[in-house]
Design a protein that fits this description.
Layout (H helix, E strand, L loop, with lengths): L17 H22 L5 H19 L7 H13 L4 H15 L6 H11 L1 H11 L4 H21 L1 H6 L7 H7 L3 H6 L4 H21 L2 H4 L2 H23 L13 H9 L7
């Protein structure tokens, strides 16, 4: 599942067909570079937004049939042309990264889903185009999987996100369960926190299972890759439950034995 800190790309997986590794790597490096602009270092927000606008200008060069200025975008342009990839998912990713610079809280789940639609779903959309499997049904399943993966990453990294000033837990859910942000700052996992996180974990699991039929629709190594991604997300949720939702002290990660379990659960699923 996860590679470095941009976790929705199955980059360099042994299951990824060799013919797709180069375009997937080009997309990944674009997304990671943009994500780093939004998250890393000590740049002022105005500079971060300007650099993301520079990325938009490069995408416009590609759309206009012009040669991009940077090597990163020259590689991306070649793969866009070779595989006839849509440009909108790339713009959606940049919109999400720009939003991360300026928006640190989400009033409700609907706002969070709108963010995930641009921060996570484009990844699956682009992969389906590379697989030549981008039907409306498959895209809908992929969107559910990608959004679930993004939510799982949020719940896995509540403490990490707090330290960079972000809270992805919907504000109305915090109020509903009687949890305030001071509790996140202190890393306090009490009964109210566990109830809040059980609600979020259950919701993410339901969304992942909603998209799970895609793992059986896709065939061969691509299908197994997708089933492993689904199994990995579900495994992290199981680990959150096993930790009694105390990700402050027991942040769940996938270890070698987990991969054995995931592989065992990745036989073709029937729905």
């Amino acid at each position: 599942m996860a590679v470095d800190h941009y976790e929705n790309f199955p980059v360099a997986s042994i299951l990824m067909p060799k013919r797709l590794r180069k375009p997937v790597a080009a997309i990944y490096h674009f997304a990671r570079a943009a994500d780093d602009i939004a998250d890393e270092g000590d740049l002022p927000d105005t500079e971060r937004l300007q650099q993301l606008d520079d990325f938009r200008d490069e995408l416009m060069h590609i759309a206009n049939g012009e040669t991009p200025l940077s090597p990163l975008f020259k590689r991306l342009a070649a793969e866009i042309e070779a595989h006839q990839l849509p440009m909108q998912p790339l713009h959606d990713l940049l919109d999400a990264f720009s939003q991360d610079v300026v928006k640190k809280r989400y009033d409700n789940y609907e706002e969070l889903l709108d963010y995930c639609r641009r921060s996570a779903d484009p990844v699956g959309n682009l992969l389906l185009h590379l697989y030549e499997e981008a039907t409306p049904t498959n895209i809908a399943y992929s969107d559910a999987i990608c959004t679930a993966l993004q939510l799982i990453n949020f719940w896995q990294d509540v403490a990490k996100d707090w330290h960079i000033g972000r809270v992805y837990l919907p504000q109305d859910d915090l109020v509903r369960f009687g949890v305030d942000e001071e509790q996140i700052a202190q890393g306090s996992s009490d009964e109210k926190w566990r109830a809040l996180m059980k609600f979020q974990v259950d919701r993410a699991r339901a969304l992942m299972l909603q998209g799970a039929p895609l793992g059986s629709i896709l065939r061969g190594r691509i299908g197994l890759e997708m089933r492993m991604i689904i199994a990995g997300g579900l495994r992290i949720l199981d680990k959150l439950e096993s930790a009694d939702y105390d990700m402050f002290r027991r942040r769940p990660v996938l270890r070698p034995f987990d991969w054995v379990i995931m592989l065992a659960k990745s036989a073709p699923m029937r729905f």
